[in-house]
Amino acid sequence: MAFEFRLPDIGEGLEDAEIVSWYVSPGDVVERDQPLLEVLTDKASSELPSPVAGKVLKLSGQEGDRIKVGDVLIEIEEPVTSPPQGNSLEQDTKIEESKPEKNTSHNEEQKNFISVAPKVKASPATRKLARELAVDISSISGTGSSGRITNDDVRLASESDGTSSRPLSPVSNNETSSPPVQERSNLGFMKPGEHKVKGVRGVIAKNMSAAWAEIPHIHSLDEVDASLLIDFRNRLKKVTRQGASKITPLSIIAAATVRALKKYPMMNGHVVGNPAEKIIIPPSINLGIAVASESGLLVPVISEANSMNIFELAEKISELVELAREHKITVEQMQGATFTITNYGSLGGRWALPVISLGQAGILGVGKIEERPVAVDGKVEARPTLPIVLGADHRLIDGDVAEAFKNSIMNDLLEPLNLLVTE
């Protein structure tokens, strides 16, 4: 019996999706809930698990093709568990006897069924690379966050004939600076030649082109003495309450941004239509946090951030960033942002002019915190400073509002104790 697995509606209003990568081929035997393929919508990528166990008969579509909701993705031949005739008890006994013993040897297992590798923490792109390099991904020790396996781990395992080791990570004891920037060559890994614009890169290209063409950007650049911000972070991390251990400079910046958005709701709004037809000011603040993943930039969203204190914000940011990097973020968790923060400082950058997303009026870019010369009481001192850049939609935001909004953020970063005061 052939089971037809059709593309489900994995997101509100989803009409179609792109096939990013097939994990199986015709002839493979799959288990129930085993990932079959990765698909990409306009918001996020998702792994689709098999709803049944059986043998793959046919794949519908190639990598890069777009398919509509309801279209057949794959045909799977389900095993016949019982014949139409015969004693059911006797048949159950035969079926049970035909199952391989749990402690059989590896060779004996291969005669009975194709085993499925245990679940490991790795993105779809990393799994695909492992298949291309013929590396057993389950045998690799991941060096990413929470043991996540990266593309570099796979390549190292391939170069060492299947044996991998954990490279040493740089460690900084300087509490007044950002963590050292680690090389992430896997982010831009692409061989020489012609490549089709698809996957997450294709979605980014489409959205950024539309945003840059439609939104008249203005940018304002500044730099903040981050001495008290760093001290505030260090003190809060010692507090024994939920979320305190997750406090980072980014979460402090996010809390200051939410306070500023409450004061200047126009920065939380957006313009509808091109040319502009109306202005929407949402009742809640849904904060997008840009995250660099191996397949491209993802923006998980903290819904109703205006109802959270700094500890709750820190915990939610940590949770969503981890999900995005693990490619476990859902479409729903990446929808509805009203304002975005992009932290290119974590990658070593100081200044940038970030692009505002469609459906928003602004974006805050933050650079790397490090010691720079600062004038203090007429003298020059080396102090940790934070570069910040505010991008705004000039159809809605004029310079006075943009500066007032940015100054509100800067004032709270200069005196972070303000963030513990409930307004």
Radius of gyration: 26 Å
- What is the helix fraction of residues, given as a range? 25-40%
Strand tally, please? 18
Q: Proportion of β residues? A: 15-25%
Task: Give me the oligomer status.
Answer: single chain
The number of domains is 3
CATH class of the largest domain: Alpha Beta
Q: Any low-confidence stretches, pLDDT <50, length ≥5?
A: 86-119, 161-187
Key words describing this protein structure:
9 helices, eight-stranded mixed beta sheet, Chloramphenicol Acetyltransferase, 18 strands, Dihydrolipoamide Transferase, about 425 residues
Q: What does this 3D model show about the protein?
A:
There is one protein chain. The chain is of the alpha+beta class and 423 residues long. The protein has 3 domains: 112 residues, OB fold (Dihydrolipoamide Acetyltransferase, E2P), CATH 2.40.50; 55 residues, E3-binding domain (Dihydrolipoamide Transferase, Irregular); 204 residues, 2-Layer Sandwich (Chloramphenicol Acetyltransferase). It contains 9 helices and 18 strands. The strands form 4 sheets. Strands 9, 12, 13, 14, 15, 16, 17 and 18 form an 8-stranded mixed sheet that branches. A 4-stranded antiparallel sheet has the order 1-8-6-3, with no helix packed on it. Strands 5-4-2-7 form a 4-stranded antiparallel sheet. A hairpin with a 4-residue loop joins strand 4 and strand 5. The chain is globular, with a radius of gyration of 26 Å. It starts with a strand and ends in a 9-residue tail after the last helix.
